[in-house]
Design brief:
Length: 155
């Protein structure tokens, strides 16, 4: 059953919308309404970017692997290189999904690394935008896990 790991991973993704960054820029104070509008716009832009990226994936498992790579980079950007939380989750998922198939494992590692380097090109410091992107990626991961756990999905 290829969706066993999705049951393990889904609760972890549900708990991962923490704030990763603080913005150091001092600007004129915004009203609460302006703050909410800016946050909504940023969230929508990040979610659209993530959704558009999903179209290029050949499988849901590959998409989840890339998603984990993206979150891994953003977490290490804000918490340091010693934080390997998402790499460890990705490795466990790959071990279950590849199940000894070296070519499948390489494909998932490539997807993970592609996600990592994609975010590395987008972000060079821990900012509020990183928090927005992490939230969008976590939501995307929840959707992928839900789809993978669906017993009626196409294989």
């Amino acid at each position: 059953m290829n969706f066993r790991w999705a049951i393990f991973l889904l609760p972890l993704l549900l708990l991962t919308a923490p704030v990763y960054a603080q913005d150091a820029e001092a600007e004129k104070p915004l009203t609460e309404r302006e703050k909410r509008a800016l946050a909504a716009k940023a969230r929508e832009a990040a979610e659209l970017r993530v959704e558009q990226d999903m179209v290029t994936m050949t499988s849901l498992v590959e998409a989840l692997s890339k998603n984990l790579g993206q979150i891994h980079y953003l977490r290490t950007l804000c918490f340091g290189l010693n934080d390997q939380k998402w790499r460890d989750y990705g490795q466990r998922m790959m071990d279950v999904e590849a199940n000894g198939d070296q070519e499948r494992h390489r494909q998932l590692v490539r997807a993970f690394n592609a996600g990592y380097y994609q975010e590395k090109e987008r972000h060079t410091s821990c900012t509020n935008q990183v928090s927005v992107d992490v939230a969008a990626l976590a939501e995307n991961g929840r959707h992928i896990s839900s789809m993978l756990g669906d017993p009626y999905r196409e294989r």
